[in-house]
Amino acid sequence: MIVLASVVAACTGSTSGPTTTTEATTTIAQPPTTASPPTTASPPTTRPASPDETLTSIGDPFYPALGNGGYDVTRYDIELTLLDDGTIVGFTTVTAVATADLDRFSLDFGSTSATPDDQPTVDAVRVDGVDAGWDHDGEELVVTPPAALTAGASFVTEVEYSPVASAAESRALPVAVGWYEGPSGVRYVVAEPDGAHRWFPSNDHPSDKATFSISVTVPAGTIAAANGSLVDQIDDIGTTTFVWEEDDPMATYLATVVVSDRYAVVRDEAAWAATGIDVRHILPDDMADDPPIALDRTAEMIGVLSDLFGPYPFDEYGVAFVDGFGAALENQTLSLFDTELADAPILELVLIHELAHQWFGDSLTPRWWEDIWLNEGFATFAELLWIEHEGGETAYRDEIRRRIGQARSSGLGPPGSPSPSNLFAGGVYQRGALTLVALRDEVGDDVFFEILRAYTARYAYGNVTTADFVAVAEELSDRDLSVLFDTWLYDDQIPG
Ligand code: ARG
Ligand code: ZN
Predict the structure, then answer these.
(1) How far is the C-alpha of 214 from the C-alpha of 226, rounded, in Å?
(2) Which residue's alpha carbon is at the smallest distance from atom 2 of ligand 1?
(3) pLDDT at residue 406, rounded to an integer
(4) CA separation, residue 294 to residues 148, 347, 385, 396, 423 (Å)
(5) d(Cα 162, Cα 109) in Å, to the nearest integer?
(6) Would you give the DSSP letter of residue 117?
(7) Residue ranges around ligand 1 (CB below 6 Å)
(8) Residue 232 CB partners (closer than 8 Å, separation 6+)
(9) Separation of 329 CA from ligand 1 center, angstroms?
(10) Interval between CA 312 and ligand 1 midpoint (Å)
(11) What's the CA-to-centroid distance between 327 and ligand 1, angstroms?
């Protein structure tokens, strides 16, 4: 089936990223014919100058509407209630520090493409406990606090809203982002890259990470899972509230929730014993009785990748299987998988891919979306490392040859300069991984894996740019690697 075929394509060297239509993507994926001049540090973004621009933009040239200036979020407390009629109402508390004197500030919230019915209604906004003014237009919620905020001050914004809107088209790929509902009735969040602000008011940009509490009240008998640990479960008359806490910094796009009345939490006690990581999967009841066998290898996978990349960054891991998604996604501590992947031969490689993202993407998060190869190239490279773990160097080399051949014949574009309207193009994945293969060949195994471990240690829980990675690689190898990175990341043609 086409959706699953493209899921498989995303992770096995075909031409497209994880989109629903392979053909369309292949066409869009072509890089502009005028190549930008090679530069190792992909051009650091100039932030917008005028106060009006910084009000509603953090300055990402790919997606100027995402993120906002003037403050840094430290924490989100999201409270959702699933009503009997299926609507979800929301209450989000945003704790932030002002980075400038502010007489107003903006949160990303809602959608421009949504039909009016689908736009959440803001019912109340308070700043530091006092009613504030607000103007909700499209994707921006501009808040006027009762008193101006001073630079350096911490402030708390509460937003009450209803309903939580369903998913709407992403600006970065031809799929919807936000809340999904699968054929089985399972409801869940798919947000990467621009869907987080469809379900909670936020500074929706990866450069502003924060800790999260996600609390979901559901009818009794339904379960709700989210990132991190279940820290409380409160039974009331006819309802249960599940409180999940992610106490490591997380980008907004990695926040997720899975809600269903036909699901179970399956804890992998052996993985806990072996790794010290709380491994819990969120599975449909029938799958919980008979989980995919590849899931048994989770502890081994965590072990293999920790040896190569440095310690697993978080306290928990697990996957949730959902229907109606059509892909896989590395939400922090809780990756999301389409149920059709459960018995696909490719499952093992997709498990490795999403697990590797916990280091590359989740702990080390791109500062700007244009550096998405720092996520997808590295996660795709991890597939090659797993193939090597299983089949040795011959298997690794064979797979590389196969993928280079495919990348050439389908004309994949350079990983360092994707198009904003097709962020997850095949070249970002496959040519991104091949860039790391080239680096490994250039500096040798010892230095190469030192580079990876130094990079994950130095930038753990933070943000990264291509220039940061190149600097670590040059430092540890004591070489000028500008030609290698320039050609592999930015040339139209695949080198060699
Ligand atoms: N990061 C995902 C992966 O592992 C791709 C996400 C694409 N976005 C989406 N909304 N499907 O390949
Ligand atoms: Zn990926």
Answers:
(1) 7
(2) 329
(3) 97
(4) 55, 7, 17, 20, 29
(5) 12
(6) G
(7) 10, 18, 173, 175, 177, 190, 192, 327-330, 353-354, 357, 379, 424
(8) 215, 241, 242, 243
(9) 5
(10) 21
(11) 7
**Residue to probe by mutation, ligand 1, list 8, 20, 192, 354, most atoms within 8 Å of CB:** 192
CB 48 within 8 A of CB 471: no
Which atom of ligand 1 is nearest to 195's Cα? 10
Residue nearest to atom 3 of ligand 1 (CA): 329
Q: Within 10 Å of residue 418's Cβ, how many Cβ atoms?
A: 26
Question: Domain 2-48+364-490 adopts which CATH fold?
Answer: Neutral Protease; domain 2 (1.10.390)
Q: At the fourth CATH level, which superfamily is domain 71-287? A: tricorn interacting facor f3 domain (2.60.40.1730)
Main-chain dihedrals φ then ψ at residue 178, nearest 5 degrees: 130, -145
Closest ligand 1 atom, residue 176 Cα: 10
Out of 204, 355, 424, mutate this one to test ligand 1's pocket (max ligand atoms within 8 Å of CB): namely 424
- Inter-residue long-range contacts of 23-29, CB under 8 Å, 24+ positions, other chains counted: 24/174, 25/174, 25/422, 25/425, 25/426, 26/410, 26/426, 28/419, 28/421, 28/422, 28/425, 29/412, 29/413, 29/419, 29/422, 29/425, 29/426, 29/427
Rounded distance from Cα 236 to ligand 1 centre (Å): 37
Domain boundaries, the chain: 2-48+364-490, 71-287
The ligand that comes nearest to the alpha carbon of residue 328 is 1
What is the separation of C-alpha 122 from the centre of its chain, rounded to a whole number of angstroms? 26
Among protein residues, the one with the nearest Cα to ligand 1's atom 1 is 329
Probe residue for ligand 1, chosen from 22, 253, 325, 329 as the CB with the greatest number of ligand atoms within 8 Å: 329
| Ligand having the closest approach to the CA of 6 | 1
Residues 6+ apart with CB under 8 A from 446: none
Rg, C-alpha atoms of the chain: 22
> Mean pLDDT in each 10-residue stretch from start to end of the chain (496 residues)?
37 38 28 34 45 86 96 98 95 98 97 76 98 96 97 98 93 96 98 98 98 98 98 98 98 98 97 97 98 98 98 98 98 98 97 98 98 98 98 98 97 97 98 98 98 99 98 98 98 94
**Residues contacting 3, CB < 8 A, separation 6+:** 20, 326, 327, 338, 340
Distance 94 CA to ligand 1 centre (A): 26
Q: What are the residues whose beta carbons fall under 8 Å from the beta carbon of 368, sequence distance 6 or more?
A: 45, 60, 61, 62, 207, 465
The packing angle between helices 373-409 and 347-357, to 10°, is 140
Q: What ranges make up the beta strands (E) of 128-228?
A: 130-131, 133-137, 140-144, 154-162, 168-169, 176-181, 187-190, 210-219, 223-226
| Rounded Cα–Cα distance for residues 368 and 34 (Å) | 22
Indicate which ligand has the atom closest to the C-alpha of 374: 2
